[in-house]
Amino acid sequence: MLDFTPVATTIVDKLAAIVGKENVSTGESELDLHSHDQSFHEPHRAEVIVWANNAQEVADVLKLAHNKHIPVTPWGVGSSLEGNPIPIHGGILLSLRNMNHVIDVHADDFQVTVQPGKPYKDMNKDLSKHGLFFPPDPGANATIGGMLANNAAGIRTVKYGASKDNVLALQVALADGRLIRTGSRSIKQSAGYNLTQVFVGSEGTLGIITEATLKLSPVPEYSSTMIAAFETVEVAIEAVVLIKGSGVDVAALEFLDTPASQTLASRGLDIEPSPTLLMEVHNAHAESQEADVATVREICDELDAASFIAIVDHTQAQAIWHARHQAYETLIRAFPDMKFHVMDVAVPLSKYPEIVAFARQEIANAGTMAFLIGHAGDGNIHVTIPWKDADSLAKVKAMNSAIVHKALALDGTATGEHGVGIGKAPYMPDEHGTGLDVMRQLKNMLDPHGILNPGKIFPAD
Amino acid sequence: MLDFTPVATTIVDKLAAIVGKENVSTGESELDLHSHDQSFHEPHRAEVIVWANNAQEVADVLKLAHNKHIPVTPWGVGSSLEGNPIPIHGGILLSLRNMNHVIDVHADDFQVTVQPGKPYKDMNKDLSKHGLFFPPDPGANATIGGMLANNAAGIRTVKYGASKDNVLALQVALADGRLIRTGSRSIKQSAGYNLTQVFVGSEGTLGIITEATLKLSPVPEYSSTMIAAFETVEVAIEAVVLIKGSGVDVAALEFLDTPASQTLASRGLDIEPSPTLLMEVHNAHAESQEADVATVREICDELDAASFIAIVDHTQAQAIWHARHQAYETLIRAFPDMKFHVMDVAVPLSKYPEIVAFARQEIANAGTMAFLIGHAGDGNIHVTIPWKDADSLAKVKAMNSAIVHKALALDGTATGEHGVGIGKAPYMPDEHGTGLDVMRQLKNMLDPHGILNPGKIFPAD
Fold it and tell me: Number of helices and strands (H, E) in chain B?
């Protein structure tokens, strides 16, 4: 049972002494702004908002909180989808907003060293003059710290990997106020335990990332976007498996079902309202681009795709991917009186047809509206279901539970990219078995008073 | 200070009760066979050799050893290069040799589930009928368990990653006898702490891997090997940096200095005795293969390479890579009265010219023979120096220390792929700073009696 100390005025004064008076607030509007993320999870206020300016301040705030038994929840921009940064036990909300600088661009090494509060789209804009980019793209303009803490992934993960695959070194502030460095700028590292990966994906429950050195990729010389429409979901999914097996190293392989494509079409995206694949290939040469597009086209033709178009015009392609990235926001705007529950189970690719069929059956049984949007190339599917009251939310939660358990039965995971946060915590015992005990040991080792983002990842006792 | 219990006859009987009498030996020849790896480190005998047959037996042996405070050192085939499996505190040598089965090939998912004692070359032979392979290739026919425990890497890591980048799930026996599973078969995983990466690279000091699910890659449709010879080391290294920056996704980018190429040439490899790059590209289409080779050739031409040849004949290419893989054995045979000290520092690519120049200067200052062989595309260099007596070994160790500290000063690492074992342990405080304290905490958490592969990774107190 967690037992925390309320944030008294004396604590607020101590915090102000660390970060400066202007970087501490107990104002209601600030507390409200930092009480919710993009998910359906119930908002909860912290007791005080603190904006740290550097790694030492983060460490000093943690040391104080550790000694006084006060919760600390780190905050990027609140773009997460599973309640990950909601300060459900109150205490200190530690915003990394002011730590938003690119420290060093190592262009010749395809690396950047950056502070955690930097939004990744802004960083990629800065990096474009070097012809480089950080490839994981969750869609929303998440911060680097948030992306690493949640091991965020996205549309281009199928080629470039998730956040965890694109990080070399970290600086981390521990609960007790120690500042450590993990990893190095060497691509190859076999020097002891992989502490970098202990903190990546730990959702701020083991330490707070205060600096990161990331692997970058060259902006591809050639890029081609493809859209294929199919008669049925089954055939579209068959195409996914064949394209992945063809040896073409697709840079994006996204699936939309008819309701999802319909909604995007109604908002200006020029696609058919049918099961659709959005694809991209990145190439170093025009010849390989043409060969890749030809292979994908051939597979789609053989499966009698209703349509197939390849787009090389950059502006037109960008508009398509912008629309895909905005899919969630588009749904929200299309159904202004509804809230949305987004699942992100992931399974081995060969099981993708089965999880999609299962989700469709659940949706049919429940008689609910639903949108299937998936990073199909990774076996990741977002079952997105609108709800508006306690009854419909209960129904969605039951479907969520059934779909998560099906994914686990298929050797998959409850969460491919959104992290555990609040909503997936109940499934962790089933996903990890006795491995969860080791995770608890790790948590107790690094955060003995349980101050770091309490209430996340582990189910309540 | 470690305090262990000697292995009494009663313990040998208990071990026999777990694994069967025929799987326990205290015979001198077995103790000798398991007393050394491929490195120069001094051999040391265990007190008893145990061959486990399944995960539960591994767990039961650990539980016994944990309760009785007896060291346990896991053993694959002893192909490591840093003393990693030498049982320097005696106790139990736990061989995984009998656990050498492929459990399941998930061909459609490009995955295999395998036992730790399976040698990777044998596994890749089994997988070839599925058109798949496990890409990290350290050269020697290491076991999967050994590769994962040391985070081994090799010639094709520049494209496909190290062992750590090609593993999805593990079963691990913990010191106290618990058996846990980590990860899942989903490519995307954001469900809590990354325990898989806690154990990968931990050199058997945190737990013993009893099963692994690995990512595989399709055997490339097109493959081309290239050999370029240069006038000077500096120009060869310049070519490495340009080729890496060109966007060509090389599958191998290896550097040999003149002494190294000379030795390989004298043993039948048809190359010039000069600074040489051995390269490979893997492609899905003939068109992209041609374009990649053309780009590499152009860079080498612009740098006035003394020669450039591209080889598409599979047998001829295999002979070249076989010779490269055998380089270490070739050196040993070429200098039968010498032993060899192999370094494996790695640095960011932009610092590669600097570390190579530094190593050459050290070699010149010492007036010693030396061979530079490197996974240049990864910034990894093997400085290989023969020695034959205490005096020359002391000289080599001093050079090793200087080169490691230079690599650290260049934001690199003491070890890119051989692991810490015995030889790199003294450098861990300099490489990790206070991060090493967290590694010690992790060690104490999972192995409170310090029985697992004691004397490795951490410098002696």
Answer: 16, 18
Question: Cα angle vertex B92, ends B90, B97, to 5°?
Answer: 125
| Residue B268 neighbours by CB under 8 Å, 6+ apart | B323
Cβ contacts of A424 on chain B, cutoff 8 Å: 191
Domains, chain A, with CATH or none: 9-98 (3.30.43.10), 102-218 (3.30.465.10), 222-330 (3.30.70.2190), 335-441 (3.30.70.2740)
Q: What is the pLDDT of residues A214-265, one digit of tens each?
A: 999 999 989 999 999 999 999 999 999 899 988 899 999 999 999 999 988 8
Q: Which of A25-29, A136-140, A232-236, A345-349 has the lowest mean pLDDT?
A: A136-140
Is B194 at the interface with chain A, CB within 8 A?
yes
The predicted structure's pLDDT at residue A151: 97
Residue B362: half-sphere exposure toward Cβ, Cα within 13 Å = 24
**Residue B412 is encoded by which pair of tokens?**
């690199």
User: How many angstroms separate the CA of residue B181 from the nearest CA in chain A?
Assistant: 6
Q: In Å, how far are A247, A267, A289, B110, B134 from B220, measured between CA atoms?
A: 8, 42, 17, 13, 12
Bridge partners (DSSP) listed for residue B93: B49, B73
Give me the residue label for tokens 């004298």. Answer: B266
CB B113 within 8 A of CB B215: no
pLDDT greater than 70 at residue B1: no
What's the average model confidence in pLDDT over A292-296?
96
The answer for B 358-397 residues in CB contact with A (under 8 A) is 375, 378-380
Does position A77 have pLDDT exceeding 60, yes or no?
A: yes
What angle is formed at CA A441 by the lines to CA A453 and CA B170, rounded to 5 degrees?
Answer: 105
Q: Pick from A108, A348, A418: which is nearest to B111 by CB? A: A348
The shortest C-alpha distance from A227 to chain B (Å) reads 22
Beta strands in B230-304 (DSSP E): 252-256, 276-283
Name the phi and psi angles at B401, rounded to 5: -60, -45
Rounded Cα–Cα distance for residues A402 and A383 (Å): 12
- Please give, one letter per residue, the 3-state secondary structure of B409-435: HCCCECECCCCCCCCCHHHHHHHHCCH
Contact A196, A182 (CB under 8 A): yes
Question: pLDDT above 90 covers what percent of chain B?
Answer: 88
d(CA B29, nearest CA chain A) in Å: 32
When scoring A80, A176, A193 by the number of chain B Cβ atoms within 10 A, the one with the most, hence best to mutate, is A193
Of B188, B350, B441, the CB nearest to A417: B188
Alpha carbons within 13 angstroms on the beta-carbon side of residue B319 total: 11
Contact yes or no for A158/A416 (Cβ under 8 A): no
DSSP string, A81-128: SSSTT--TT-SEEEE-TT---EEEEEGGGTEEEE-TTSBHHHHHHHHG
- How far does CA A296 lie from the centroid of its chain? 28
**Across the interface, do B288 and A285 touch by the CB < 8 Å criterion?**
yes
Note whether B383 and B359 are within 8 A (CB): yes
Rounded to a whole number, what is the distance in angstroms from the first to the last CA of chain B?
Answer: 7
ipTM of the complex, rounded to two decimals? 0.97
Q: How far is CA A384 from CA A158, A266, A274, A400, B378, in A?
A: 21, 18, 17, 10, 42
